[in-house]
Design goal:
about 85% helix; single chain
Length: about 425
């Protein structure tokens, strides 16, 4: 048994191709980086448009309304993870791994039926949390239903490797969203309810357009066979740990808003601003992860490990640069993007930025393990992080408000990253020793 440092060095030296002078050619050869660049470019445009959504609301609405909209969106995201990350993620992998085109639609039907009870459970959980803070009930229902439609369609396109349509879907949805937002504000109709409705259901417009123009979903269903209990069991076997992962992830990056509203409601708007402005940190890693899962699902073991290695190296370098920029220039960033009364957001921003950086690296590893058909490892790691984050909220957020919540999510995702990282290194070592 060698030292941990030597083990890691030996593992990567055997698992990764020699890098000297060969990284560009390898990137093109496996298609991962070309497609990741396409998804990243599309995501960059879509996120730039989506990034304007909270900023425009912050300038056009009161801080209370801004905080309310962010609460419904983020808490809705948390409860929706019960349905968003189980069967939809299982659908993406099943479709990507299915060799017979006629059977792909069968997986779509089975995943939709499997997700119905979880949709009801998500709505119920959302209403319970909404009642706990005396907020309106119906906006939470809209968020859960809208996000469910979006998750299934996104994962369907992902599983089909229709990345051009996926990019088109995301860009057009966010472009329509910002256009309709401006029209709502100009018409004086931008209430909390209408803003939440816009966020929830804007995805249906590009979805309908894509189906009328290219019909990826309709073509699958036309060719599909009736699904069996066997199909549902196979999806469930993958969906359950994936669902656990998604819910635990949302506990770290969704339930935080609930805790801030519960313990420090006056700080929620500033905390929401800090959370909203850090979204660009995860853009490239999420783009790579989007492509990585279906690529890895159809790859051999010898092909899959080098994909992970290159993805982690690229993402980590970019994350370090992004987090450093946010940490150093947080007051300037807040003052440029948000109105002057959001200046207190600079303090939590310094802590949230590294948390999003850790999330970016974690997402690469978790999507790789999902693609390998082994969702238990990400589930164990993110559940560990969720437990740490929840305990930290009870101690830190209750005492220090937004700053405490920032440290809580940093502690949670750092725990998940360490647990999954150790597991990944151990698997790499076993593969090296068995080689």
């Amino acid at each position: 048994m060698g030292s941990p440092t030597r083990t890691v060095r030996t593992a990567f030296s055997m698992l990764a191709p020699r890098l000297s002078g060969r990284i560009p050619s390898l990137m093109v050869a496996d298609g991962l980086w070309r497609t990741s660049l396409l998804v990243f470019t599309g995501t960059l445009i879509a996120r730039a448009l989506g990034f304007l959504f909270p900023i425009v609301i912050a300038h056009a609405a009161s801080k209370n309304d801004f905080a309310s909209v962010f609460f419904f969106i983020n808490t809705g995201f948390f409860v929706s993870e019960l349905v968003l990350t189980g069967y939809p993620t299982a659908l993406a992998r099943a479709v990507a791994a299915e060799k017979h085109a006629a059977l792909r639609g069968t997986w779509l039907s089975a995943s939709a039926v499997g997700g119905l009870p979880l949709l009801a459970l998500s709505i119920t959980a959302g209403e319970i949390l909404t009642l706990a803070v005396n907020a309106a009930l119906f906006p939470m229902v809209m968020v859960v239903v809208g996000l469910t439609f979006d998750a299934y369609y996104f994962q369907l396109l992902r599983g089909l490797s229709e990345f051009r349509l996926l990019v088109t879907y995301r860009i057009s949805a966010n472009a329509i969203q910002i256009l309709l937002l401006i029209l709502l504000i100009a018409a004086g109709a931008a209430s909390v309810a209408t803003l939440v409705a816009l966020y929830s259901f804007v995805y249906l417009i590009p979805m309908l357009w894509i189906e009328l123009r290219w019909s990826p979903g309709r073509c699958l269903l036309r060719k599909s066979y009736a699904f069996t209990i066997g199909h549902l069991k196979l999806l469930t076997r993958f969906a359950v740990p994936s669902l656990i992962s998604g819910t635990a992830y949302a506990t770290i990056f969704g339930l935080d808003v609930f805790f801030v509203l519960l313990f420090a409601p006056n700080a929620l708007a500033d905390y929401a601003a800090a959370r909203a402005i850090t979204a660009p940190i995860t853009m490239l890693p999420r783009s790579i992860g989007t492509v990585l899962l279906p690529r890895v699902a159809s790859a051999s073991d010898d092909e899959a490990w080098p994909m992970l290695f290159r993805a982690l190296i690229t993402s980590s370098m970019l994350v370090v640069c992004a987090v450093g920029t946010y940490s150093v220039f947080s007051p300037t960033i807040i003052s440029v993007v948000f109105p002057p009364n959001y200046a207190p957001a600079a303090e939590p921003l310094r802590i949230i930025a590294p948390a999003l950086g850790a999330l970016a690296v974690y997402s690469i590893m978790s999507q790789w393990w999902m693609g390998r058909g082994r969702p238990v490892a990400p589930a164990v790691s993110i559940v560990s992080g969720a437990m740490v984050a929840s305990a930290s909220h009870l101690v830190l957020t209750s005492a220090h408000g937004a700053i405490g919540a920032s440290f809580a999510i940093l502690a949670g995702i750092s725990t998940a990253l360490v647990v999954l990282g150790v597991h990944t290194i151990n698997q790499a070592r076993r593969r090296v020793n068995g080689a």
